[in-house]
């Protein structure tokens, strides 16, 4: 990886921001293509025996033949679209990493969000490398240290930006996209990851 980029985390992990990996016109074009071509769904999740709908639309794409088992159900990703492959190629080139699947999020407006969590599922291995690409409205990405909750960082994720999280970040830091009712425009985020053989 090009080492001119500085680690945004003070301790216990590595997060790098590539602010304009895709320029404005390419970003706008990709935003439109992703809006139209991705099979967006609002999925239910069970929280404390109650079924609620996720506060955003999601989709899962990846290498053909890959599967992922979750509470006894085996799921398969949808096959890559051309624009997802193009984006994946661009981030693999700049990061030197490799990704085999992508979780997509469509935040319809500022009322959509993702709560505090870590991308630390067992299937992602010990120190997961997470590549996050954003298009559309800018949203604030918040990080807070898992143990020392006073340690907090905010990163503005603008359209066309690429955020790379690696090393022990997913052990030691939580992340979220908080609601912001002032925001009325949509944002698409793609989380590229590598699911290891399980
Ligand atoms: O939208 C984002 O920037 C973050 C999404 C995220 O953390 C996730 O889907 O795991
Ligand atoms: Mn996440």
Labels describing this entry:
binds manganese (II) ion; 3 helices; alpha+beta; Jelly Rolls; 198 residues; four-stranded antiparallel beta sheet; seven-stranded mixed beta sheet; binds 2-oxoglutaric acid; 16% helix; globular
Characterize the structure shown.
The chain is an alpha+beta fold. It has a single domain, classed as Jelly Rolls. The chain has helices at residues 24-37, 82-95, 169-172, and strands at 14-18, 44-47, 50-53, 57-62, 68-70, 73-75, 78-79, 101-107, 114-117, 130-136, 139-145, 152-157, 162-166, 173-177, 187-193. It has a 7-stranded mixed sheet with strand order 1-13-10-15-8-4-7. Strands 9-14-11-12 form a 4-stranded antiparallel sheet. The longest helix is centred in the first third of the chain and has 14 residues, at 24-37. The protein starts with 13 loop residues before the first strand and ends in a 5-residue tail after the last strand. 32% of the residues are buried. It binds 2-oxoglutaric acid and manganese (II) ion (MN). Manganese (II) ion binds at residues 117, 119, 175.
């Amino acid at each position: 990886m090009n080492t001119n980029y500085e680690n945004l985390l003070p301790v216990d992990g590595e997060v790098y921001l590539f602010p304009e990996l895709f320029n404005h016109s390419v970003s706008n074009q990709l935003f439109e293509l992703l809006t139209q071509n991705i099979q967006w769904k609002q999925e239910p999740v069970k929280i404390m025996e109650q079924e609620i709908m996720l506060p955003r639309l999601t989709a899962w794409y990846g290498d053909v033949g890959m599967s992922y088992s979750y509470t006894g159900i085996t799921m398969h990703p949808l096959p890559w679209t051309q624009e997802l492959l193009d984006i994946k190629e661009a981030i693999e080139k700049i990061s030197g990493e490799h990704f085999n699947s992508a979780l997509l999020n469509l935040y319809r407006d500022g009322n959509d969000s993702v709560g505090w969590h870590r991308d630390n599922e067992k299937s992602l291995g010990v120190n997961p490398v997470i590549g996050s690409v954003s298009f559309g409205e800018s949203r604030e990405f918040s990080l807070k240290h898992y143990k020392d909750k006073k340690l907090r960082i905010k990163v503005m994720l603008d359209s066309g930006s690429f955020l790379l999280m690696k090393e022990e970040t997913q052990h030691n830091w939580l992340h979220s996209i908080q609601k912001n009712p002032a925001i009325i425009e949509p944002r698409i985020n793609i989380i590229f990851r590598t699911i290891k053989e399980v």
